[in-house]
Amino acid sequence: MHDIRWIREHAQEFDHALARRGLPAVAQNLLAYDERRRAAITRLEAAQARRNMASKEIGQAKARKDEVAAQALMTEVASLKADLPLLAEEEKRAVAELEAALAQLPNLPDGDVPDGLDAEHNVEHHRFGAKRDYAFAPLEHFELGEALGLMDFETAARLSGARFVVLKGMLARLERALGQFMLDLHVTEHGYTEVAPPLLVRDEVMFGTAQLPKFADDQFRTTTGHWLIPTAEVPLTNLVRERILDAPQLPMRFTACTPSFRAEAGAAGKDTRGMIRQHQFTKVELVSITTPEAGRDEHERMLACAEEVLRRLDLHYRVVTLCAGDMGFSAQKTYDIEVWLPGQGAFREISSCSACGEFQARRMNARYRVADGGAIRHVHTLNGSGVAVGRALVAVMENYQQEDGSIMIPTALEHYMGGIKRIERAA
Question: Is 362 considered catalytic here?
Answer without folding.
Answer: no
